[in-house]
Amino acid sequence: MKYAIIGTGAIGGFYGAQLANAGEEVHFLLNSDYAIVKEEGLHVISEVYSDIHLEKLNAYQHAIDMPACDVILVCLKTTSNASLLPSLVQPLLHSGSVIILIQNGLGVEADVAAMFPGVGVAGATALVSVYKVGPGQMHHLDYGDIEIGNYNVQDTTIIDKVVAAFDNTGLISRKAEDLNTLRWKKLVWNITFNGMCVVLNTTANKLLADRATYNLSKEIMHEVILGANACGAALPESMVYDMLQFTIAMRPYAPSMKLDYDAKRPMELKYIYENPVAMAKAAGYYMSKVDMLLQQLLFLGKY
Ligand SMILES: NC(=O)C1=CN([C@@H]2O[C@H](COP(=O)(O)OP(=O)(O)OC[C@H]3O[C@@H](n4cnc5c(N)ncnc54)[C@H](OP(=O)(O)O)[C@@H]3O)[C@@H](O)[C@H]2O)C=CC1
Ligand SMILES: CC(C)(CO)C(=O)C(=O)O
Predict the structure, then answer these.
(1) Which ligand does the CA of 14 lie closest to?
(2) Cα separation, 152 vs 121, whole angstroms
(3) Same-domain pairing of 36 and 130
(4) pLDDT at residue number 253
(5) 269 CA to middle of ligand 1, Å?
(6) Residue 155: Cβ within 10 Å count
(7) Residue span of the structural domain in which 172 resides
(8) Residue 273: what pLDDT?
(9) Are residues 33 and 168 in the same domain?
(10) Among residues 176, 202, 222, which one ends one of the domains?
(11) Contact 3, 24 (CB under 8 A)
(12) Total domain count for the chain?
């Protein structure tokens, strides 16, 4: 199968490099790093796995120069989806292509499916701590699990093949039974920690080292689980403790939203906060603590 990576940043660079390193045919769309990556290749420096240096890779500066691909892995920030995806994805489509969004948030598949009528869309959550440290250079700190849930792909055997390809890289890879539950499960982490790390200018491990913010984190997680379940997800209360353990065990890491805020890039508020708050409210549950966090983030995003 031919894979396209749309947005070769932290996530696109990490997962694309894993696939290419395992022998898959991967075509990388780059932005500001194109010239350096063309010259020097793509590097993933990992604290967990072997480092990867892809010396020769299929790197492109323009989507129009890329071949049609079977699997289009969208790894942009969701803040760019509406403005960039129509022009970046359309040239890569053939009649059997599927688009898989490796992005955080809720409702993103519906918006992308509306842009590409008749094209199968799926969503993926990445449980990984990775960030771009320089042009074509990704620093991988922790984890790497990837889970894929179907939105409207008709022939889902292609999703099974993608799961198998990721599994073959050595990463833990699964097909989720229910995309809605998958999205909300990841949001229990992102809603709690991404926003608080921005508002309190800190990292998740520090939030959990302090009694007051540890308790607040737990309360927000509980609220998100209630919101999720009001929206038809099936999340057990016990996952709060799993997430706390996961976060305590994690190497100190600033979530992607904190990196965006510090770099003065727009934050992914629509899909990580606005949609979940609105959807839970419409389903009869008001996530008041999450909404308060959202209002603070909206304020910070303006100034
Ligand atoms: N980082 C992480 O640990 C995790 C991130 N996520 C989610 O994954 C998604 C991607 O995040 P992340 O990888 O961190 O983001 P990055 O900002 O690292 O990567 C986005 C990439 O898109 C590229 N891009 C922007 N505009 C264009 C364009 N016009 N053409 C081609 N490429 C373009 C950027 O290019 P340039 O390099 O020039 O800026 C950048 O490399 C987000 O939804 C995030 O929430 C999920 C789990 C963990
Ligand atoms: C949970 C975490 C930290 C890594 O998967 C993430 O999703 C992010 O940085 O936004």
Answers:
(1) 1
(2) 6
(3) yes
(4) 82
(5) 15
(6) 10
(7) 2-176
(8) 98
(9) yes
(10) 176
(11) yes
(12) 2
What is the mean pLDDT, run by run of 10 residues, along the chain of 303 residues?
A: 98 98 98 97 96 97 98 98 98 98 98 98 96 97 96 98 98 98 98 98 95 98 98 96 91 91 97 98 98 98 90
Q: Are residues 124 and 149 in the same domain?
A: yes
Last residue of a domain, one of 176, 210, 238: 176
Nearest CA to ligand 2 atom 7: 190
Residues 17 and 137 in one domain: yes
Query: 212 and 290 in contact (C-beta within 8 Å)?
Result: no
188 and 89 share one domain: no
CATH number, domain of 274, equals 1.10.1040.10
Q: What are phi and psi of 96, to 5 degrees?
A: -110, 10
Q: Determine the pLDDT at residue 87.
A: 98
Pocket test for ligand 1, best of 31, 78, 257, 297 (most atoms within 8 A of CB): 31
Specify whether 175 is catalytic. Answer: no
Shortest-distance atom of ligand 2 to CA 255: 9
Closest-CA residue, ligand 1 atom 43, reads 103
As given in the structure block, the two tokens for residue 185 are 């499960």
Look at the block and give the residue holding tokens 């209630």. 226
